Amino acid sequence: MERLGKNQGRYHGETIDIDKVQREIRAAAELHGWQSEIFYKSIGAELCGYHRTSRSAKQNVYLSSGIHGDEPAGPLAILELLRSNEWPEANLWLVPCVNPNGFRLNTRENAEGVDLNRDYRHQNSTEVRAQVEWLKRQPDFDLTLILHEDWESNGFYVYELNPNDRRSLAEDIVEAVREVCPIETAELVDNWECRAGIIRPQVDPTERPQWAESVWLIVNKTAQSYTLETPSDFSLESRVRAHLAAVRGALRSFLRK
Ligand SMILES: [Zn+2]
To answer: Which among 37, 35, 29 is positioned nearest to 53, based on CA atoms?
Structure first.
């Protein structure tokens, strides 16, 4: 598998019709018994949260994607996960897209130029404020998986936040992806030390002026969080496959007795 070489200075790969993808996500979720709630509505943006619980499931898992509008593989992978409906025994929560305007512009930021994934500490954007209000109404999660892409990277990598040193899922996630996508070999990614495709930021949230969604989740909602990063200079189809492998690998590893 080769890089396409399109991403000069930013993401220049395939884009998606986010309204169509969101409609398809809604249809697949309804078909398979998910509850949905529109938690934010404005001109051109309708944000929706989903959940599906079962009486016998013991673990709560949250997935999110579509925070950066130039990262289309996440929402497409969520759509495929919903359509294939092959979930293990877990209670599931999902926010497939909080930045539809960013997708229309093919920009990382929202229409106001805000990087939503730096806005979870101060919550200046209406999108993040609304999502956080929705998240606060949900129970605590045991695991959160956040789907992103990196236009610069040469392979898949994963950020792990695991402050209580629970059994790590990172190696299992990387091994699951390795079959379908190259793994990042760089030892420094975005100034983080990266080993065999795994970044384990040792961060004190109180010392960080800006919070990503994963940091807000670790502070408020979950003990363990993984941010999955596919390399967006590869074909969109291969990145969707990488996300599917990563999510399924994470869930398999997490729910293993
Ligand atoms: Zn991103």
So the answer is: 35
